[in-house]
Design a protein that fits this description.
By secondary structure, this protein is mainly α. It has helices spanning 12-26, 30-60. Part of the twin-arginine translocation (Tat) system that transports large folded proteins containing a characteristic twin-arginine motif in their signal peptide across membranes. TatA could form the protein-conducting channel of the Tat system.
Amino acid sequence: MTLYMLPLAIGPWQIALIVVVVLLLFGGKKIPELMRGLGSGIKEFKDASKEEDSSKEDKNE
């Protein structure tokens, strides 16, 4: 395994540890709210990038 791929080598114990830490930091009730906000942010980003692409196509024509 090369050095640049080392951070991507996450095993099941590391994932479990991350889940436990997130649960301890935010609590079980707060996590769905955080994921909903993250999802809406990603959707807004995709919409904005599509608008940018369409405006570039309009300028090229």
